Amino acid sequence: MTLDFEKRKNRLFILLCGIFLTNAIVAELIGVKIFSAEQTVGLQPAHLNLFGFLMDFNLTAGAVIWPVVFITSDLINEYFGKPGVRRISFLTAALIAYAFVVIFLTIELPPAQWWLDANNTDAQGNAFDMNFAFNKILGQGQRIILASLAAFLLGQLVDVFVFQRLRRATGPKKLWLRATGSTLVSQLIDSFVVLFIAFYGLYPNTQLVAIGLTNYLYKFAVAIALTPVIYGGHYLIDRYLGRENAAKLSDEAAKQSNSFL
């Protein structure tokens, strides 16, 4: 492989890692907002009856960009294998933890009075406490942060394991199976791990299962819908690296990953 290919490969890895890191950290920060998926697309709430609970598709705002993390993770997995995914996953978890440490430190800073006075009413003239709003929005509970980090890491490790198992079974063919299949398995685990770590003992277990199923139904539908995007990503990378070089890189990634399995 030529020096030009090595440069392109390194640039590709940096680009994919940058996309992965950015979207994962932003998803954690905006995850405090819960939105209605049905109303977003102009539908009425679903009111699914699960274990005696009426469930709607009320999701964390982070779910909007988590699919970008899924896609990028699969692309890193395909071309850089298990070592590449493990490195970026642990680095991302560390940086997410760092971000929340910085946020908690800034929450403790005493607000300037002029800042409070300049931002003490909303657009309708209603009074509010700007410092309280800042702390409430950015200051997520420690148990939720721990749950999110644990679910993220476990989901990533499961994803790369399933992805490479399917790659070994099917070879370079059936990209849709290993990409979508690994995401469906990892997100099934992620959907329940985060809930039970964050809210076990605070809500009935049946309600947590109902919430987890609702969240997973959304993630399942998104994973299926994004399958063509995975193929689009592979097409662009194959063009950038050259089809032959991209195939060799993918084969090398699979061999490296198999040595870990």
What is this structure, in a nutshell?
By secondary structure, this protein is mainly alpha-helical. Helices cover 75% and strands 5% of the residues. The protein has one domain.
What does this structure look like?
This protein is mainly alpha-helical and 261 residues long. It has one domain (3-260). 75% of the residues lie in helices and 5% in strands. The chain has helices spanning 3-30, 37-40, 66-107, 113-118, 130-138, 142-170, 175-199, 205-225, 227-241, 243-260, and strands at 34-36, 48-50, 53-55, 58-60. Strands 1-4 form a two-stranded antiparallel ribbon. A two-stranded antiparallel sheet has the order 2-3. The two termini are 27 Å apart. The mean pLDDT is 89.
Helix/strand layout:
Blueprint: H1 3-30, E1 34-36, H2 37-40, E2 48-50, E3 53-55, E4 58-60, H3 66-107, H4 113-118, H5 130-138, H6 142-170, H7 175-199, H8 205-225, H9 227-241, H10 243-260
Antiparallel strand pairs: 1-4, 2-3
